[in-house]
Amino acid sequence: MLKKNVEDLCNRQVEREGYSSILYLSMASWAEANGMAGIAEWLYAQAEEEKDHMLRFVRYINERGGKAVIPAFSKPPEDFAGIVELFDDVLKHEQYITASINEIVELTLAEKDYSTHNFLQWFVAEQVEEESSAQAIVDKLKLGGRNILYQLDRDIMKLRESED
Ligand code: FEO
Predict the structure, then answer these.
(1) 103 CA distance to ligand 1 centroid (A)?
(2) CATH of range 4-139; options 1.25.40.10, 1.20.1260.10, 3.30.465.10, 3.40.390.10
(3) CA-46 nearest atom, ligand 1
(4) Ligand 1 centroid to 130 CA: how many Å?
(5) How many other CB atoms are found less than 10 A from the CB of residue 118?
(6) Among residues 28, 24, 36, 33, which one has the least CA distance to residue 155?
(7) Which residues are CB-contacts of 150 (< 8 A; sequence separation ≥ 6)?
(8) Which SS3 state, helix, strand or coil, does residue 65 take?
(9) Is the dihedral of CA 77, 163, 16, 141 positive or negative?
(10) What pLDDT is recorded for position 154?
């Protein structure tokens, strides 16, 4: 049985993962509408992954005798200043999610909830990957500037294909 404070933080994470999904969906739609098909593909796929992350929390809370709550989500931004700014936002958002996961990890240790601690290890590893791929894209964009955007768009599309 989940302790109430652990359940509450897990439910907070349901909201944060769900919001991540619609944030990336909005970014994907913006990229697609602006002719960046490869970047849009990457972001659409990220949106799906975040939905899966949300589901993992929902199922885990219920499996452990808690009650997962599906919240209303804030409306994500619909316009972005540019692709560099967009990926900067992705990176910052992932850093925020990592901090949020780490908070739950710390609470599980304080509460000696080793099952939830174990459940969270998948997310700890996933966050390393997500931060590193966002960082790699930000670095490429800053290095190459906007003139390599077309090539980058193709590269990101290929990256996605090789991840499937
Ligand atoms: Fe599920 Fe990208 O954090």
Answers:
(1) 15
(2) 1.20.1260.10
(3) 2
(4) 7
(5) 10
(6) 36
(7) none
(8) coil
(9) negative
(10) 74
State the closest ligand 1 atom to the C-alpha of 17, by its place in the atom list counted from 1: 1
Does this model's pTM top 0.85? My answer is yes
- Quote the ligand 1 centre to 113 CA distance (angstroms): 22
Where does ligand 1 bind, in terms of residues with CB under 6 Å?
17, 20, 50, 53, 94, 97, 130
Q: Give domain limits for the chain.
A: 4-139
Q: Which residue has the least CA distance to atom 2 on ligand 1?
A: 94
The tokens for 124 are: 């700890």
Q: Which range is least confidently modeled, 26-30, 35-39, 58-62, 107-111? A: 35-39
Q: Exposure string (b/e) for 32-54, b if CB count within 10 Å is 16 or more?
A: eeeebebbbbbbbbbbebbbebb
Q: Report the pLDDT value the prediction gives residue 67, as an integer from 0 to 100.
A: 98
Q: What's the gap in Å between 100 CA and the centre of ligand 1?
A: 10
72 CA to centre of ligand 1 in angstroms? 18
d(CA 66, CA 150): 48
Determine the Cα–Cα distance for residues 164 and 162; give it in Å rounded to an integer.
Answer: 6
What values do phi and psi take at 65, rounded to 5?
A: 85, 10
